[in-house]
Amino acid sequence: MAKLTDEISKRRTFAIISHPDAGKTTLTEKFLLYGGAIALAGSVKGKKTARHAVSDWMEIEKQRGISVTSSVLQFSYGGYCINILDTPGHQDFSEDTYRTLMAADSAVMVIDASKGVENQTRKLFKVCVMRHIPIFTFINKMDREARDPYELLEEIEGELGIATYPMNWPVGCGKEFKGVYDRGAGQMISFTANNGQREVAATAAAVDDPGLGALIGEDFAETLRGDVELLDGASAEFDLEAVQAGRLSPVFFGSALTNFGVEPFLKDFLRLTPPPLPRVCDEGEIDPFSPDFSAFVFKIQANMNKAHRDRIAFMRICSGKFEKSMEVLHVQGDKKMRLLQPQQMMAQEREVIDEAYAGDIIGVFDPGIFSIGDTICSPNRKIRFDGIPTFAPEHFARVRQLDTLKRKQFVKGTSQIAQEGAIQIFREPGKGMEEVIVGVVGTLQFDVLEYRLKNEYGVEIRLEMLSYQHLRWIEETPVEPKKLKITSDTKVVQDFKDNYLLLFTDTWNINWALDKNEGLRLAEFSR
Residue limits of the Tr-type G domain (predicted)? Predict the structure, then answer.
């Protein structure tokens, strides 16, 4: 029992979120560099090098320099076992980010120092607030021209409605970025620049050190002394309880590209962020230190490695210890089973493991039985975690394969990609899967669908954009769905779980359907 408690206490499981191009994937990779998981950092968008960020595994990600899937990365640093969930950086994949945040105990919010709070940052922050998870802010790209640090803190507080506490303070920016002042240690940390592919050397000096001017320049030293006096007088006391309740965000400044401030941030973050948190199930809260194993599926991914051609279900362990080949209960399927060859991930690299603990993320082979939100637990204690909602898509297209002889591959490809949660597929009642309607949250997902069907399943498709803008699940209906009174431009469809839904072109049609069909109840998302 002592070992179980010790192992779970060492776990830190967090997601990194940001607006596209704020430097999230670069920061993720630098954590791996300092954790010894990689020896050389690759430029995410480098044109002169063939290297790509290790957390971007899908070919389309490497081509576009963005993350469109959630990568799971595990490494050790400073006595901690760290699980990073690197979320999609593009707004069209916000639903995947939401599911990933369900598996995290805290979040690192990356903000571009020149742009401040951006649209996607606001959306993702709202999700964190919904879950009451601690949010740590890393203001990135101080190696470029940046906005005033006081102005950035004020914007975070005003736009996101959360109090901030600067843990460090930047000295200079752009080419004059000298390093950061660590408020806890009372020291200026000056970094020696390299090409950013390796760890940087750091030199520390106190604010009242006579040699500070020689280290960073007399003007910068004088400005820093004034800033320190202002910060110590103006900012409230640091409150760890408020941080862990999601009411106060510790703020760090730095540059992921040059590694300036990355290691001090990592050390402080690991010290302040909580170990695995309790999870809510139908019996109340589940203690992560309970000896009974429990987990839930938050992500499914097919064809991570073309050589394997398999499907991996990612599970967040919520309590106890997992051991390879142990008997578990799949609650939704009401079936006992053994999870063979459990794996931990470094992007697309896999390692078969013998054991894992609460807080860890494991991948298991999925023969097609798991769905997002499913609970897996010890057979002696049947529990069910809260489901993960499915949100209504906003863009729709009719999709058909160009080669009718590839019907089998088309059905398999669209079904598998839909089960991953990347797209939603619908069919007209009574019709087969030769032609489907695909719904997505953002239009870039159509590009990914077309790319994956061609490259992973050998199927070329034709996409015909449709004018529908709203989708509603039918919760209760006074008559058969096909007999509902609806406008001519409203369509009845079914999802791959055979639920009935309505597609609308505008909100007027939604209200018309509700008015004309007494007893009809519609829902914006499905659990």
Answer: 9-277
Q: b or e along 467-500 (b: 16 or more beta carbons within 10 Å of the residue's beta carbon)? A: ebbbbbbbeebeeebeebebeeebbbbbbeeeeb
Count CA atoms within 13 Å of residue 462 on its CB side: 8
Q: Would you say residue 329 has pLDDT above 80?
A: yes
Q: Whose CA is closest to 294, among 268, 263, 328, 323? A: 328
Which of 409, 417, 457 lies closest to 440, judged by CA? Answer: 417
Average pLDDT, integer, range 350-361: 88
Residue 146 contacts residue 107 (beta carbons within 8 Å): no
Binding residues for GTP: 18-25, 86-90, 140-143
Amino acid at 464: E
Alpha helices for 109-210 (secondary structure H)? 119-131, 149-160
Q: Which residues are annotated as a binding site?
A: 18-25, 86-90, 140-143
Average pLDDT over residues 255-279: 92
pLDDT (0 to 100) of residue 221: 93
In which band, very low, low, confident or very high, does the pLDDT at 14 lie, cut at 50, 70 and 90? very high
Residue 38 has a pLDDT of 60
What is the pTM for the complete model shown? 0.78
Decide if 134 contacts 46 (C-beta within 8 A).
no
CA–CA separation, 124 and 22 (whole Å): 14
CB 34 within 8 A of CB 263: yes
pLDDT higher than threshold 60 for residue 58: no
What is the H or E stretch that residue 475 is in? strand 470-476
Q: Which residue has the tokens 């992500």?
A: 299
Cα–Cα distance for residue pair 73/79, rounded to 1 Å? 17
Backbone angles phi, psi at 367, to 5 degrees: -80, 10
Residue 147 has pLDDT above 50, yes or no: yes
Q: What is the pLDDT of residue 109?
A: 92
CA 230 → CA 19, 146, 188, 233, 500, distances in Å?
30, 20, 16, 5, 60
C-beta of residue 456 within 8 angstroms of C-beta of residue 306: yes
